[in-house]
Write a structure and sequence with these properties.
Length: about 425
């Protein structure tokens, strides 16, 4: 073989060997790349399976997402509602029970809900009972003129209803044949204690006329009948010239310086009213002028239909502004003796069968505690059992404002467990 052929053969072998090396390197690189890709994919899968669960604003794991508008639907993943509002995350430790009866709520949620609390105190409680009433005459200040002897009214000195009379003022003059006979008998028996004297006294013969008979003066033909008490004439049946029989009512006189206000109190309020309580009376004629009074009597019966009891309130009426049969509104201040534990009425969750308050235990912890309630006064409720002075109770939170919610729903809303 010549030198030229030898050089060509050596060059071809070198090219073939280089190609073989390049192929080997490429195959090895491909294997290494595939192995690396498998390890990378495995690492990605491993890191994906070991990724931590999403956390909520409370710092714990998100248990579920609830509807921001309070609807009962929930979601295991973040989503939006029909108004494009984000669902609210609920953490696993939120609403968890502590010691079996303590509810724990995150502090940021407490702030969002506007939870307010107030310390329990002992207070002097007073309940105001408001009732309707009517104004009536004082029954003990009424007088009826019904002479014990018959006769004819010859002259009227008081001849109109509504006239004001004084004690001893002449009402009318009467001619009585019966009295004339007794006067003659008395004159015949003058100086001795006869039957005519006693009979004249029994018939309410005026003492002034009887003194004149004792002095020997001539007996009058007519007798003047005086008013036995001062007051206002509210009834007048006497007519000048009429004849009346013994015992017939001719005048009715009432002293209106004191009036009665008869109030109808509901049966459930009777426990808070007693004789001696002060009352404030208002009438439509003078709405801006209250009339002070005092409860003097509680009638023993209760109306079968109305289920109310009647109270009698005495009110001074020196200027005569109060008139009979006026409609009135009465406010009675009924203090409860002693000092009592009381909470704001907004702090009580009433299920109908039992009542509960939420006692603050600190750091977002609240204890639902049953209580026994007493009287309800403006703004507060008397607590007979279940609370001690110094404890703090929840008084305001937007999640409790639901007129139709029961106790379970209220507590569920408090723990943000809607729909669970």
């Amino acid at each position: 073989m010549s030198n030229i052929e030898s050089r060509k053969a050596g060059r071809g072998f070198a090219i073939a060997f280089a190609a073989a090396l390049a192929g080997t390197a490429a195959g090895a690189g491909t294997v290494l790349w595939l192995n690396g890709a498998e390890r990378f994919t495995a690492n990605i899968a491993s890191s994906s399976s070991e990724a931590p669960a999403p956390t909520g604003p409370c710092g714990g794991k998100v248990k579920y997402y609830r509807n921001p508008m309070g609807a009962p639907d929930t979601s295991p993943v973040p989503k939006k509602d029909s108004m494009q509002m984000d669902y609210i995350p609920v953490c696993e430790d939120e609403g968890a029970s502590e010691d079996g009866n303590v509810v724990k709520v995150s502090l940021d949620k407490v702030q969002r809900l506007g939870v307010r609390s107030e310390a329990v105190e002992e207070r002097a409680l007073s309940r105001t009972v408001r009732v309707f009433a009517t104004v009536q005459y004082d029954e003990r200040r009424q007088t009826v003129i019904a002479p014990r002897f018959g006769g004819w009214i010859e002259k009227l000195h008081v001849n109109a209803t509504g006239d004001v009379v004084t004690a001893g003022q002449k009402l009318f003059e009467v001619y009585s044949p019966e009295l004339n006979v007794l006067q003659q008998e008395f004159m015949l028996s003058r100086g001795t204690q006869g039957s005519a004297d006693n009979r004249l006294r029994n018939l309410d013969y005026p003492e002034s006329d009887l003194e004149r008979l004792r002095r020997g003066e001539r007996p009058p033909r007519t007798i003047a009948v005086p008013a036995p008490a001062a007051g206002t004439v509210i009834e007048k049946m006497a007519i000048e010239g009429m004849r009346y029989q013994p015992g017939e009512t001719l005048f009715r006189i009432v002293d209106t310086s004191t009036m009665w206000v008869l109030a109808e109190v509901y049966e459930q309020d009777l426990a808070f009213v007693k004789a001696g309580d002060m009352a404030k009376v208002a009438v439509n004629a003078w709405p801006n002028r209250p009339f002070p009074g005092r409860v003097t009597f509680i009638y023993p019966g209760v109306g079968k239909e109305s289920r109310t009891a009647r109270l009698r309130i005495e009110v001074a009426n020196p200027d005569g502004l109060l008139r009979a049969d006026m409609a009135a509104t009465v406010e009675i201040e009924a203090p409860i003796p002693g000092r009592w534990v009381a909470v704001p009425d907004s702090a009580v969750i009433d299920s109908g069968k039992r009542q509960i308050v939420l006692v603050e235990r600190g750091e977002g912890r609240y204890e639902p505690r049953p209580v026994k309630l007493g009287a309800r006064v403006p703004g507060y409720v008397q607590v007979l059992e279940g609370l001690r002075p110094g404890e703090r109770v929840v008084t305001s939170a937007t999640f409790l404002i639901d007129a139709e919610s029961n106790l379970r729903a209220a507590l569920a809303a408090f723990t943000a467990g809607d729909g669970k």
